[in-house]
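# nightly structure sweep
# worker-07 picked up a monomer target from the shared queue
# config: single-sequence mode, recycle default, output format = structure tokens
# input follows
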Amino acid sequence: MPEGPEIRRAADSVEKALAGRAVEDVYFSAATLKPWEARLRGLELRSVDTIGKHMLCRFQDGTRIYSHNQLYGRWWVIRRPALPDTRRSLRMALHSATHSALLYSASDIDVVREKDLGAYPRLVSLGPDPLHPGVDAALVAERMTDRAFLRRGLAGLLLDQSFLAGLGNYLRSEILFSARIDPRASPADCSDACIRRLSRAVMAVTRRSYRTAGITNTPDNVRRLKSRGWSRDEFRFAVFGRQGQACHGCGGEIRRVVMAGRRLYYCGRCQKDPVV
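# output follows
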């Protein structure tokens, strides 16, 4: 499933191509949304916002098109009248005079009136998004020490969208490795220094992934591995998907476990108890 950085980059592409322009045509595959096509046609698209893995296309009258890519959804932004070469099912399309923004394979799409946005059920329970301005490591640390989250295992907490919006499975593994924290720990197990380190890792790894289109390994490691001829798939992650390979830091073996129902990767040497 695309995580927060991927959805924000998709939103950037849609916004760059269509924002500030009238949407000449709108298409929804869902019959329940068909009446909105004529109502939105001709309106200006003002912005494309994200909250974690959720995208909101905002029109001049305040109406939002809500979408969640789920596991297989994918956006294409392409100059008209071309269409991508894909066998996917088109679920939604926004067309300006020059470009099309096309969402394939995702069925979680809705239209939300501005007056209903504050109570929209898919959004009301979301935590802060690390990619949003104003969200910083201090806020993340404050949430970790909140009574609601303090004794939750980090492996599950980092997937909980009510804690922080946009984190997912690859970010979870990469954040815990970057902070050198045992994935079995909870915030209650961590010292103040550990909480600060983890909070900084949340921000740094998430924003690095956004800037680099999904690379979470450190820039130093990326440069070193690229100089050895490693491909992007090989140097992209520090631990995620690298079961049985050597840790870039200590040379120990990367391990794979299932925690909170999802696969998690970590280095048994770098991420050891005690958590300090």
